[in-house]
Amino acid sequence: MTTLDEVPQLRRAGAADRPTRRRSTASLPRLAPRRRTVLQSATVVGFTALGVFGPARAAYADGYDIWTGECPSYASTHDCSPGCGPSTVHAAACETSGEYEGFHRNDGVTWTLRPNQCYSGSYDGWLWAFSGACGACGCGIERRCHDGYFNSGSGWVRSICRWTTDCGCEGAIAWPTVRDGSRGPDVYAAQHLVTFHGFATEPDGIYGPNTAAAVRGFQESMDLAPTGEVAATTWPHLVVTVRQGDSGEAVSAAQRQLAKHGYPLTVDGAFGALTADAARAFQRANGLTVDGIVGQQTWRTLVGAA
């Protein structure tokens, strides 16, 4: 197992080695609609030539090149989330303060680093930029994904610290819209929830005709416009308050969402102590009432935030 005494830092060309800091910004560069760009390490000249980010916002890993080609096949649907590759994103993997804020933890006991093993074994991590709305970021988001290992108790497994480095048009978290062709955790949640309400559809994370038909049936039962899409007018009726001791499809939906945010849960439909702990941790991290109950505000933040 490779261990280091300090974090392998992301570097600025011609500058002293130091971690880049998280910055707030009013907007991100306007890329083509739904374009995904994976950025891994570069020089300022490289960024400027590509016209992606200016030198003041450059962040790169140990002098490697930028990757701007097609996303790997496993990331073909990672427009907004998770955007960090096949390893597990752990919410607790990131340093939250101090010199290495926003980088993977490295205490040598529960967490350690995984240098030069990202993307074909050449990088310490990558930057991921998406130009569309993503959770609380209304017109684009940039994330850094820093690789490491997590001691699961039965061995070391790969983990990722995902940290938002830029958020365009930051504002209130809103319910997302999932519709025909959508994929991912929000679709899983909608499928589990509509099934809970008696309109069964297979929870496969793909929003196809069967899911649309089930959603229309639910909407008609609630006197909502039968659009077949799950948007801001449907989510509040669809979500169900769940808490420790509950079980079923609604709990599975909550577990899918907590897993999306980096809490390693098994989606088994049983709201036990681990799910309650994850719910409380998520609430604490997002400024919500910390009670471990997944109600309307927690659901909206789970589903709407990236």
Automatic annotation (TrEMBL):
Coiled coil: none annotated. InterPro entries: Peptidoglycan-bd-like, PGBD-like_sf, PGBDSf. Residues 1-30 are annotated as: Disordered. SUPFAM superfamilies: PGBD-like. Residues 183-235, 247-302 form the Peptidoglycan binding-like domain. It comes from the Bacteria. This is Peptidoglycan-binding protein.
